[in-house]
Amino acid sequence: QTPFHHQVEITQSFPREGWVEEDPKEIMQSVYECMERTCEKLCQLNIDVSDIKAVGVTNQRETTLVWDKETGEPLYNAIGKCMLHLNKHMSISNKLTKQIGGLNHKTGLPISTYFSAVKLRWLLDNVEEVRQAVVSERAMFGTVDSWIIWCLTGGRNGGVHCTDVSNASRTMLFNINTMDWDPELCRYFDVPIEILPKVRSSSEIYGWMVSSDYQRSLCVRCLGDQSAALVGQMCFKEGQAKNTYGTGCFLLRNTGTKPVMSEHGLLTTVAYKMGKDEPACYALEGSVAIAGAVVRWLKDNMGIVQSSSEIETLAAAVGTSYGCYFVPAFSGLYAPYWEPSARGIICGLTQFTNRNHLAFAALEAVCFQTREILDAMNQDSGVPLTELQVDGGMTSNRLLMQLQADILCMPVVRPVMSETTALGAAMAAGAAEGVDVWSLSPSHLPHVTCEKFEPQINSDESEFRFARWKKAVQKAMNWETTEPSCNCPGMQPLDSLSYLTSNFLLQL
């Protein structure tokens, strides 16, 4: 049960094409505000805040930053999870890396600017403050969970510098077999291993809060956002899966205690490790770059909708895209293609097409991308899913959920609490306090299932629309074939990564 919640939107900046940055200080301000407002509301409800036992942190796993441990100041903005531009040599090296499988075997990941190592390498090459902090042994690297935990537990006055296995596994510096930072990977990316946080399990006491009135009762743990959603959906058994609809889409399937390497463009990731002495559980993951972000684009860039909720009204008014297909590859395509040169296209336009059809096509695009990932996941696992559990902010859009059921030709199940990411983080925190998380399952909590969306079109129509989508995707491929010039003073393109990646290939 959720007595109360509070949320604060964080400002994003877009300093150049393909980049998303956030202010680390603003991130912490939003954390403090959410905690303060929530505690105030609990007091109004006559709930004693001293009964709170733990704080669970969940976060976008690939958001990357470096800060100064002596001053406590960030040395650059947090770099989000949009692809950076790579030159043609990097693209060639990426394909070769996929073929030899060396990097993939250690990390479960392809070389991509989506992950932290490449962003960190850019910071080391281009931000003088970062270079100087490394030389003087003042630099701390982390995904955003590390920054939040460090600040909550004291910051420069004894703050804990750590992360959990689910976040570490998204850096391209972590070996998912040894469950530790890999010296060889750090050497290839020329990253000093000393600046990396200590890796902990997803459910243990990291430290105690010293930044609130409730410090004596609050200890801190963390879990990456998609792993938290997997836990929140209670997908504890091998073969169970969930799809989260947020800024992007993330379909995860629990593969148990052994990593399963994908042959169809998916990622192998650490799902969670519920305790220091517990085994790690792994997942196959398909990542879609643009889901809810396409609605924001229609609103902020194109002015087609005035609010996010309006897209459902517009799309429902026509009930069809009228043959219009939208591939929102604004910064390339993620799973199963991993093609950074792809760019967004809208095709199939006629004189009859209007904004309602574009709104419908945008929602369909989210569903088609999920279908591509689900097909790849079924091929890798050999055991097709029979229904899809969903969560995330976009699941409040009933038309989207119905479209998803139609395009997948299977039921889509939406829980009462759509923000299961927060629920999963709370469950992991509770597990460290002795709550028997593993005894929970969807069957024990029948009220969790709010609504089941059954397919309402025949499979032939679904396959026809999906085939047209695939045709549109092919037209979006290889659009960006050259590295654009960087007009930002002092900022260099990622040329050094070509050497690093080639060096990695030769030595492996």
UniProtKB/TrEMBL annotation:
<protein>
    <recommendedName>
        <fullName>glycerol kinase</fullName>
        <ecNumber>2.7.1.30</ecNumber>
    </recommendedName>
</protein>
<keyword id="KW-0418">Kinase</keyword>
<dbReference type="Pfam" id="PF02782">
    <property type="entry name" value="FGGY_C"/>
</dbReference>
<feature type="domain" description="Carbohydrate kinase FGGY N-terminal">
    <location>
        <begin position="5"/>
        <end position="232"/>
    </location>
</feature>
<dbReference type="InterPro" id="IPR018484">
    <property type="entry name" value="FGGY_N"/>
</dbReference>
<comment type="similarity">
    <text>Belongs to the FGGY kinase family.</text>
</comment>
<dbReference type="GO" id="GO:0005739">
    <property type="term" value="C:mitochondrion"/>
</dbReference>
<dbReference type="GO" id="GO:0006641">
    <property type="term" value="P:triglyceride metabolic process"/>
</dbReference>
<dbReference type="InterPro" id="IPR000577">
    <property type="entry name" value="Carb_kinase_FGGY"/>
</dbReference>
<dbReference type="GO" id="GO:0004370">
    <property type="term" value="F:glycerol kinase activity"/>
</dbReference>
<keyword id="KW-0547">Nucleotide-binding</keyword>
<dbReference type="InterPro" id="IPR005999">
    <property type="entry name" value="Glycerol_kin"/>
</dbReference>
<dbReference type="Pfam" id="PF00370">
    <property type="entry name" value="FGGY_N"/>
</dbReference>
<dbReference type="GO" id="GO:0005524">
    <property type="term" value="F:ATP binding"/>
</dbReference>
<comment type="pathway">
    <text>Polyol metabolism; glycerol degradation via glycerol kinase pathway; sn-glycerol 3-phosphate from glycerol: step 1/1.</text>
</comment>
<dbReference type="InterPro" id="IPR018485">
    <property type="entry name" value="FGGY_C"/>
</dbReference>
<dbReference type="InterPro" id="IPR018483">
    <property type="entry name" value="Carb_kinase_FGGY_CS"/>
</dbReference>
<dbReference type="InterPro" id="IPR042018">
    <property type="entry name" value="GK1-3_metazoan-type"/>
</dbReference>
<keyword id="KW-0319">Glycerol metabolism</keyword>
<dbReference type="GO" id="GO:0019563">
    <property type="term" value="P:glycerol catabolic process"/>
</dbReference>
<feature type="domain" description="Carbohydrate kinase FGGY C-terminal">
    <location>
        <begin position="242"/>
        <end position="432"/>
    </location>
</feature>
<keyword id="KW-0067">ATP-binding</keyword>
<keyword id="KW-0808">Transferase</keyword>
<dbReference type="GO" id="GO:0046167">
    <property type="term" value="P:glycerol-3-phosphate biosynthetic process"/>
</dbReference>
<dbReference type="InterPro" id="IPR043129">
    <property type="entry name" value="ATPase_NBD"/>
</dbReference>
